Structure formats: structure tokens, C-alpha cells
Amino acid sequence: MSPAMTKQPNPEAPFAQPPSWADQDRRWQALSSRDPSSDGAFFYAVITTGIYCRPTCPSRTPKPENVRYFSTCEEAEQAGYIPCKRCCPKQPSLAERQAEKITLACRLIESSATSFTLAELANQVGLSKYHFHRLFRQKTGLTPKAYAMAKREQRLRESIHQQGSITDAIYAAGYNANSRFYEQSGDILGMRPEHYRQGGEQAEIRFAIGECHLGAILVAQSRQGLCAILLGDDPEPLIQELQDLFPKATLIGGDKSFEDTIAQVIGFVEAPEVGLDLPLDIRGTAFQKKVWQALRSIPPGETLSYADIARHIGAPKSARAVAQACAANKLAVAIPCHRVVHHDGALSGYRWGVERKQALLNKEAEGETL
Ligand SMILES: [Zn+2]
Question: Which of 87, 212, 227, 337 is the catalytic position?
Fold first, then answer.
């Protein structure tokens, strides 16, 4: 999971520098081809008609020897020419009107906490969806979506300073409850958010969110080792879950150096038989730790029952407590609680959903036959 490269727009100057139109040959080329990018850059007058035009004027192309160039309408009028009625050179140019529309769209994106659809934005500035998308990209160098993403990231960075929790900050930055944060999490977590306080305990926990065949995956690491591997449909509840599990820790959205770790963990979740060569920070009661240790001795592709585990740890009557310890596991797959099933073979529960348990077991069963 490499972070997607994000082109950073310059919010102060989103528009590219216009080309220089001082050169006469270029001017002639522009007017004879009605080059739209030259519109507003200069004007031309025709000495035989006494009229001056935009270089994009649809009128018949004059003979080059009859053309005079001017930088502004004023200069053309001072020289005695009158404005063309077809191209109206004194009105704002098409480029200027387009730039106004795109500027308006940028402001709409920036000022709104919720996200617009492409159709909504295009409608707001009076353009077709297709034309708007093309024009936006042409003027800013970014698609409207990329621009909105960059802006939201900027807001997220800013609001993390002010909001109480990462989740609050995400909402304040305008992310929807589900999809958007997910597809962008690599970008977002590529930055280093400020530490924020949750009760003053010194422990720092770094985390990052990725994607695996089971859905969203959150990997968290304390100074001692991996302390949480959580699975879910969407990233935001996972962040909440992490906060609930470690209410006093300072959570730090994964910095760059964390990418190798999450890549390694995802690789392991995809193929548990390769093993996980990372230290675990296992926090629990003595009994839970005993159960979890026993779970780690079950090889991929095999299952045991709760009663088997209870016997294995020398507490044969504690099958129910074993089940509870399994449910309290914070390290999905690394502590393979999915390999514990009912004695009759039924899957029983799984902290991260029975479908995921089934998917994991199926995958490991496939791995066995290879
Ligand atoms: Zn004209």
C-alpha cells in the first residue's frame, strides 16, 4: 500500500501563467487559427474596414498586410478603430468568463463542508458536466475531485489542531461517513497529524488504515509492538474502536515510516502462512494472555474448539471464558482467534463478523492444498 501521489494545488494561484503574445508571428498564427488561448491577450484591427476584433473573432480572416495589432481595446480605439459587433472585444473574453466560473467552483469547493457532485458543481457555474470537468482541469491542473480532496486534506490538517478527536476532525473536514475517507486514507495518513490528548497518559500509539481482502484494516503499534489489528467495512469506526480500546493513549495517524509496517501486516493477513515477523504488544488479563498464546500455536488451515483450548491451557471447564477471551482479542489474524470454532464445527462468533471468519478459514484451507 503505497500512498497515492497527490498533486498539491497552489490555492493562491490556481491558474497557469498565460503564454507571451508579444511576437507578431505568434499573433498572426493565433488569429488565423482563432486560437482560443489567445482570446483577451491582444486585439487586431483591419485597416480596410476600420474595425478591431478579438483574435478569435469568427469573421473572415483578413489579409496579413492589412492587420494592425494592439494590446488593449483602448489602444485600438485611440488609433481610430471601432469594436467589432460580432466578437464584442470590449466584453470580458471567453477565457475570462471561463476563469470566473472555475474560480467560483473553487470557492464553492473550499467553502463547503460537504462534498458536491460533479453535476452539482457544473450546474452551479452554468456549464455541462463534461465541459466543466475539462475546463476545470485545464485551468487548475487538477480534476474537481482531486482539488476537493486536496482541500479536504488541508482542512483535516487544520482541524486536527482544533478538534477533540481524529473522528471529529474527519467529520469537520467534510468527509462522509463511509466511502470517501476510505479511498483517500493513504493520502490522509501520509501526513503527520498533531498529537492530541486523551487523558494525559504518555503512551503513544501510531496507526494507519489500509485495505485487504477482508475490507478496511487498521494497524496500530505502540513502542512495545503491534497492539491492534482491527477489521471493518469502513475506516472511521475502526479509528473509534482504537480510541475506545486505548482511551488514554495519544493516537498518531501513521507517518511515513509506518507504511512498511502496515504493508507487512496486510501481506500477512492476505497470506497468514508466511508468518508475521513483528513484535506484538499483547495487553490483557493473565487468563486472556494464556488463551491468546494457545491460539498462536494453531497453525494456518487448522481449527480447534473452545473446549480444546480450555484443555490446552489446563482449565478444561473454562470453554466459555475462552470464548470471551477470543472475543476480546485486539490483534486480528496475528492472534488467530478465527481458528477457534464450536466443537460441532459451527463457526460461532467472530469479533469482526462471521463472514470474515469464514473468508479467513476458506483462504487458509486453500493455502493448505497448494
Ligand atoms: Zn470581430
Answer: 337
